[in-house]
Hints:
CATH architecture of the domain at 14-89: Orthogonal Bundle
Helix content: 40-55%
Bound molecules: zinc ion
Amino acid sequence: MTDQLTLIDPEPPRLTERQQVALEHLGSNQPLTNDELGAFLHEARRAGGGSGHGREERCAYCAAEGGQMGRRLRELGYAAYRRGHGWVVAGTPLPPAVARGGYDPAVAPFPKGF
Ligand SMILES: [Zn+2]
């Protein structure tokens, strides 16, 4: 199995440690919006001794930095952006669309007169 993967993708793009951490976080928390991804990065930076804040907080740079990270991961082929949802790991199928106004036999009433 490992040999096969090696043949398909002999040299995947290298990720920085920060990108790797962001990708792992994305994998278990997707989809993430720009500011959610940025807030995670700021939390991770604080954990590493730098400036930052908790994941539930937002600063003026969360959205910008999250968007930057998302776009970089997309360039490298690791992430994708789903409109209306946010960043996901590349190859993640779209969540099932919510049917609006479509006929659903499970909830549709019998026509009047029957
Ligand atoms: Zn922030």
